[in-house]
Amino acid sequence: MRPTFLAILCFLAWSPSSEATGNLSPGAVGVHRRFEYKYSFKPPYLAQKDGTVPFWEYGGNAIASSESVRVAPSLRSQKGAIWTKSQTNFDWWDVEIVFRVTGRGRIGADGLAFWYTTEKGDYNGPVFGSSDRWNGLGIMFDSFDNDNKHNNPYISAVLNDGTKLYDHANDGTTQLLSGCLRDFRNKPFPTRARIEYYNNVLTVLIHNGMSNNNDDYELCLRADGVNLPKNGYFGISAATGGLADDHDVFHFLTTSLHAAGQVQEQPKVDNQEKLTQEYKEYQDKLEKQKQDYKKEHPDEHKDDEEWEEFYESENQRELRQIWQGQSQIADHLRELSRKVDEIIGRQETTLSLVSRNAGQALPPPAAGGVPQQQLPVGAVSRSDVDLLLTNQNMLLSSIREIRQLVGDINVRTDNIQTNQKHAPTAQIQSTGYDVQTLIAEMRDGMNQVKQGITHVGQRLGAPQGAAQVANCPTGNCVGVTLFLSVTVVQLLLVFIYNIFKNRSEAQAKKFY
What sign does the CA torsion over 457, 458, 459, 465 have? Predict the structure, then answer.
């Protein structure tokens, strides 16, 4: 007797836990689960800026925001619904809904419904905001007691083959597959419902919203042998009557269920090609609408063109940047040309001074003293000539640097023009973004050259005042050979400058 009693006790202790485990996770062992984002929505950014919900469409009095979808607001006689745009391509599924039904009264109305049907329902239908005579499954979260049996709020599952009318007077009790009595109104936390359909077994689990534990589900109903049509639409609808509640849905998460080892073949769709085709069709449609609008409103066409002039394309921006860079280069070249002209003028002044005083004789020595070799006040000393030669060498090196810099500018400009010519015009060019860097490098080089030229000018300007009071050292005055050498160097400099000036003018013409 005692072993029998212990066996029965062990069986009773084991059965509830086993049943709860099977109910909470029906078919969970050996099932492959995959999240289906095209049949789901959740915050944040639930709705886009234009109010649309990706892969969903809603209507009636439904309102979508970034955090939730208010299927029916707390106003009298309001109806709304939200449906998926595409049919399912999987047989078994698991849907988790997070919602909240709140109202100011002790009794609410009318309720909210989950749908899985072959066709999309209406947005202002008679059955909780959706259409009657549906073909598929409806899970009703009924908050109003129509039959006055004091059994609401009530959750029921109703199947329909498209021929039956919903029994509102009896709250669908004559048609329901199964159900449970659960109060889901005005809870401190959102209510959660998990609806699973796998191997023709329908299971509904409910989280009563009394705790923030998201896994605190309890079994509401379970039905075997449920045959739902394939390739259906998911939807949520709600409605209010004489009484009103806010019906807010926060999450609608769909997961497809597949047997272990089953390979689910997904249709191969080239998304890039599809999006490109849709974009092309949209552009053609938009262009056609523009042409039609211009034909219907010829007076407003000029204003549109004036507004379009305020905007520039990527190619126009690149051409403007290139033009600005070449304009700055031309300005720097003009400044350099002016500086070189000043240097040449000073050199010519110095040469004229040397030629005027080269043939003058030395003054006689003083009586009884050591003969002193001095030049008149306007003579040029040997040190001045050495300084002049040094300045000439510095000028030559500066001109070489200028030529090298101009050569680099020509090479880079040719590269820019070549890239602009060969690159496709419909794409954003990469060379346009290097123009500012190139201009900065050119500006730095030009500043260095300007500093060098300024230093040369200062060095050249110094001997003019000193030459008037300098004395010619003994035996080191300017001779004919030195004078001719200086003359040849000056002629060579003038010749180089003419070549440089001609090239600069040619490049300037090329720029413009």
Answer: positive
